Amino acid sequence: MMLDTLKTLLAVWGPTGQEGQVAQELQQMLADKADAMRVDVMGNLIVEKKGQPGGKTLMFSAHMDHIGLVVTDIEDTGYLRVTNVGGVSVDSMRCRHVAFGNGVQGVAVCQPTKGETAGMQHLFVDIGAQDRAEALTMVQLGDVCVFAPDCFPVGPHRFASPAMDDRCACALLAELLLQTDAPRNTVVGVFSVQEEVGLRGAATAAYQVAPDIGVAIDVTAWGDTPEVKLPAVKLGAGAAIKFMDRSMIATPCVRDALMAAAEKAGVPYQREILPFGGTDGGAIQHSRGGVPTGTLSIPCRYVHSACETIDMRDMESGLAILKEFVNGEY
Amino acid sequence: MKTEDFLREVTALPGVTGNEGAAAAYIADAFRPWVDEVEITPLHCVVAHKKGDGPKVLVCAHLDEIGMMVSAIEEDGSLRLQSVGGVDPRVLPGMRVRVYAQGGMLLGVVGATPPHLLKDADRKSNYTWDTLYVDLGMSPEQVREKVRPGDTVCFEARYVELKNGRVATKTADDRACVAIMLAAAERLNALRHHADIYFVATCQEEIGSWGALVSGFALAPDYGVAFDVCHADTPGAPANSTSKITSLVTSKGPYLNPFLVKKLEETAKSNGIELQVSVDPRSTATDADELSVTRAGVPTVLLSLPIKYMHTNVETFDMHALTEGARLLALYLAQVEQSWEDELWN
Amino acid sequence: MELKTLCELNGASGNEGAVRKAILEAARPLCDHVRIDRMGNVIAYKKGRTGNRRLMFSAHMDEVGFIILDATDDGLLQFRSVGGIDPRVIVSKYVLVGEKQVKGVIGALAIHLQSAEDRKRVLGYDSLYIDIGAKTKDEALADCPPGSYVYFDSSYQPFGDGCVVSKALDDRVGCYNLLRLLENSYDADVTCAFVTQEEVGLRGAHGAAFDAGADAVIVLEGTTAGDMGDVEKVRRVCEPGKGVTVSFMDNASIANRELYRELLALAEEKGIAAQVKRASTGGNDAGAYQRTQQGVRTCVLSVPCRYIHGPSSVVKLSDVEAQYQLARAFAEQA
Fold first, then answer.
1. pLDDT tens across C150-181, in order?
2. How many CB atoms lie within 10 A of CB B236?
């Protein structure tokens, strides 16, 4: 179930700022199980499952968007000049298969840099157009491409995909909503937009939801490949419960409640202390008069590349933790 | 409670950003005798309300402190650290630190590879988070049993009285300013005031003034007064970046409301209180930045207490400046009138 | 109000009083309600015939300038920029300092006295000072105390083929067009926000956005034109004379996709010159509007501006007109 949901969501095109197709897919998936569902002015999909009387409102956020390249100019020769949407590194873009929303495909290429450090100005996208005029029949300035959707198994437990950040969390949240019946607390699942450019969607969603407690679900970095030690998080050792990153220090009571839920569910989990990065949790915690907030992370190798890799056992651990968490007494 | 006693105790308490519970509880208790209501918010801001029938004023100083978090435990039981807020790792070697573990506080010593064992080139480079560790003097098994990644770590806390009323302590940034608010709250009991005053000891200033942002939203004040520390004169400091240690400083610049600053200067002058002026051409890097743009905007002033050696365990200030600061704050708050509204944008 | 009048008013971030006063007076007879909010913004509201939509247009009143920090013992004023001003463009410029508009010049060590190494170095704010002719620190600070604002002493002049040169075109062109928008009547309810402190972090707009209740916010801006000199063709961002620019994204916001397409289509339909801004650099008030409270749809319409943030920025008047025409056409749509 989880894997099917994941694969479905990984196949949908949805860069930062244009998440509509992902929201549509999720709406279809969740239509029968939601008490209320709407898409707000920013494009966030907000799904509600009512809790018992006396329960609190818990907001969970997983972002639908992923990083891409936006067309800033088209050369007379038909090549597209681009710049990043979100945290794209040039290295991850060398000779990569990319896709536009209208189905046009191309190859992202880094031109020879003549000794300069490679930057966005050295990238171009080849869509096979003969000249500018032909290119303009295929794409317009301001159009966005992403790594072409893909998903392949790596060993017995793992999958790699360019959109794992953060569709794996979308899948987790979708499964939580599908598998939870009559929770003690009201569960508001926010599938947020524009996380990759500064937690923008989660900020406006949190304002509307005004939750009692917030939990972001996102991927985190890894510390178990050659010459990479921190954060001290491994693939396959369970979902990670965040203590801090650059966007937020997890509110102690929520962080502890997540760990208690893991203990109660009897699943493995890890403690995550991340010196960089950020998640929707920061935006939720600092919303309105302040919202106690934590983050549940799925360890993910090679984040922001075409081969973002996760372990399905960590997804199962994460789902078990959240299913327990929504029935906690707060 | 005497200001000195409050400071001695409150600066010793742990309150690393995001984990401010202990400091918040102590500060809430200290305010109770002098105000109408005290509340601790879910994110650990302390809100002390002294009621009035006039404009609502939010006065804030932050209660959180910079510190560290255990990021990993090495094979040999030594702890690796990650900074919470702007800790300079160069101040750490040889420092005694407090590790707040589940079972209680543990004393640790910050160690690094001894210089004798380093190559010449390495000796010239600074200590970094990668080269420092905390030694708990226990076996790796004992360490693993007691300590977990994510436990908070504080600087050692000693309150040292130097000559001429100077004090060196951990977390003068910004609990010395919390002490100013507390002393002003006490003084206001002997003054008439219209202002409806909220003294807020804010959380999470060191990573982005989040406490001021959410408090501003929750309380929706008419005016804001932010309190923080600034740099006192020390040898070799860049020009125009420091102030005399002997009195408070107010700032001018785009983030601060000129009318409120003018009123503050007038209050100081008419009461014979020394007040320095500094200029912030852009952000002030204090709670004033966020407080001033909460909701539809909050016209705000900034007052700063000059300290030396900011972001270390020996932050040094002048007790006389602190006492005069409390007098200024109380007198200023007693002046706030409804009629100020008409002059705000003239 | 004339663009010249607006440009020649002085109003750096946090010191917009003169601009605010002029705009307040000009707007009052044109709208149903006008007020100053908690950030010092001027909010002008015009009720629509049917009120079918609630539209907001926004431009910032503030410009970049300088602020006095202190003076040297021999009477030279030390200063910093308010907003982003590249110190390389300010050496030997004329300025006016403080409330009394004291005349001064920005000085630096004469080139003859600089070593060969020094000459290669960028003169930063630490090596520059304002000379008002004062002999002592006290004399300098008497009329120009710390916190005094400083402005380019720079007039508005037409030149070339339909161009003007002036300080503060960013964003008095937007203010100018907002006032023109208020002269018409619409079906929609229209709010024009003249906001403060854009140049120091989009601060006024944060306040204007709160409880604004708009269906869409259109920000009228001036933006960097890179069409001159050695700039490669693919780096030119936008070009004066080719119309108003429409932005798909910048560092502060991503335009609402439908709104962005609607504005481009509208320009084409009405024959209004428009160009897509060919970069995602910079940031403006749309970022503050879009993310306040529950969020709102935004898009940015800019006038291409050469040598922006200097004493002699340049725009083409036909682009200023195009910005107005497109904003007006959008407001007039059913």
1. 999 999 999 999 999 999 999 999 999 999 99
2. 4
Residue of C276, C280, C295 with shortest CB distance to A40: C295
Question: Which residues of B are tagged catalytic?
Answer: 205
Asked if C259 has any chain A CB less than 8 Å from its own CB, the reply is no
CATH number of C3-63+167-332: 3.40.630.10
Q: Give dist(CA B72, CA C184) in Å, integer.
A: 65
**In chain A, which residue's Cα lies nearest the Cα of C237?**
A72
Domain that holds residue B97: 77-155
Q: Note whether B220 contacts A: Cβ–Cβ < 8 A.
A: no
The tokens describing A252, both together, are 């102690």
Among C248, C280, C295, the residue with its CB nearest the CB of A204 is: C295
SS3 C68: strand
**CA nearest to A204 within chain C:** C294
Here the tokens at position C91 are 């050496």
* Interface residue ranges in chain A relative to chain C, Cβ cutoff 8 Å: 16-18, 40-42, 70, 72-73, 75, 81, 83, 85, 121, 140-142, 194, 197, 200-201, 203-204, 207-208
In chain B, count of helices (H) and strands (E)? 10, 17
* CB atoms closer than 10 angstroms to residue C92: 9
How far away is chain C from the Cα of A32, in angstroms, using its nearest Cα? 26
Going along chain A from its start, the domains and CATH numbers come out as 2-66+163-325 (3.40.630.10), 69-147 (2.40.30.40)
SS3 category, C79: strand
Rounded Cα distance between A64 and A200, Å, is: 12
Contact A42 C295 (CB under 8 A): yes
Q: What is the β-pairing status of strands A68-74 and A80-85?
A: antiparallel
DSSP A136-191: HTT--TT-EEEEPP--EEETTTEEEETTHHHHHHHHHHHHHHHH--S-SSEEEEEE
**ipTM score assigned to the predicted complex:** 0.93
Query: Which residue in chain B has the smallest CA separation from C196?
Result: B254
| CB–CB contact B72 A232 (8 Å) | yes
Cβ-based burial of C130 (10 A; exposed 0-12, middle 13-18, buried ≥19): buried
Q: Do B17 and A249 touch (CB under 8 A)?
A: yes
Cα–chain-centroid distance for residue A203?
Answer: 15
Q: For A136-165, what is the mean pLDDT?
A: 97
Domains of chain C by residue range: 3-63+167-332, 65-152
Q: Is the dihedral of CA A145, A198, A277, A11 positive or negative?
A: negative
Residue with structure tokens 């244009």? A18
Q: Which residues of B touch A292 (CB under 8 A)?
A: 42-43
| pLDDT above 80 for C232 | no
CA A91 to chain centre: 21
Confidence at residue C334, expressed as pLDDT on a 0 to 100 scale: 65
pTM of the model: 0.94
Band the pLDDT of C221: cuts 50, 70, 90: very high
Q: Which residues, 6 or more positions from A49, have their beta carbon under 8 angstroms from its beta carbon?
A: A33, A34, A35, A177, A180, A183, A186, A187, A188, A189
